[in-house]
Amino acid sequence: MNLWPPFLFAGIRVVEISPDYRYARVRMRLRPWNRNFFGTHFGGSLFAMTDPFWVLLLFNQLKGEHVVWDRAGEIEFVAPGRGTVHAEFRLTDEHVEQVLEQTRGSEKALIWFNTDVVGQDGAVIARVKKQVYARRKRDKQLAHA
């Protein structure tokens, strides 16, 4: 993922994805190409560093039996981002069970996830909310009926 152009050119680095796809950590150093006019992290890059992870983690937990997409996103900028910033994603059993319960038939699940982007000192730089859509794949619906 570190060579994926949207991450590579924004300076976003995937530090860790756990083998069980329950945890991910990313970081972004402040560079000339991801600074805004004021010399702090560009807001679009802060949002981009959180973009694919909830979908990636959830999709892998659902073992390919569901269609999983980002549906909506929000970002609240709390403080100027200077230096290196980090974001962590922890998918819980409750998240997975919630999706499985809501998608037992052909229903969709819409789940909100929260992620803080934090600075080197642990201060929150931005709060990101992502809504993920999941629905059991049609062929999997028939197999489980």
Can you walk me through this structure?
By secondary structure, the chain is α+β, with helices and mostly antiparallel strands. It has five helices and six strands, in the order αββααββαββα. It has helices at 5-8, 43-48, 53-61, 93-102, 138-144; strands at residues 12-17, 23-28, 66-77, 85-90, 108-118, 124-136. Strands 1-2-4-5-6-3 form a six-stranded antiparallel sheet. The protein is elongated, with a radius of gyration of 17 Å. The mean pLDDT is 91. Pfam families: DUF4442.
Provide a count of the helices: 5
Strands ordered across the widest β-sheet: 1-2-4-5-6-3
What fraction, in percent, of the residue positions are helical? Answer: 10-25%
Question: Tell me, what's the shape?
Answer: elongated
Rg is 17 Å
User: Count of DSSP E strands?
Assistant: 6
Uncertain parts = none
Strand content: 35-45%
Q: Main β-sheet, in a few words? A: 6 strands, antiparallel
InterPro entries: DUF4442, HotDog_dom_sf
Pfam families: DUF4442
Protein name: DUF4442 domain-containing protein
Q: Topology, please?
A:
Blueprint: H1 5-8, E1 12-17, E2 23-28, H2 43-48, H3 53-61, E3 66-77, E4 85-90, H4 93-102, E5 108-118, E6 124-136, H5 138-144
Antiparallel strand pairs: 1-2, 2-4, 3-6, 4-5, 5-6
How would you briefly describe this protein structure?
It holds the Pfam family DUF4442. This protein has 145 residues and is α+β, with helices and mostly antiparallel strands.
What brief labels describe this structure?
single chain; 145 residues; alpha+beta; six-stranded antiparallel β-sheet; 5 helices
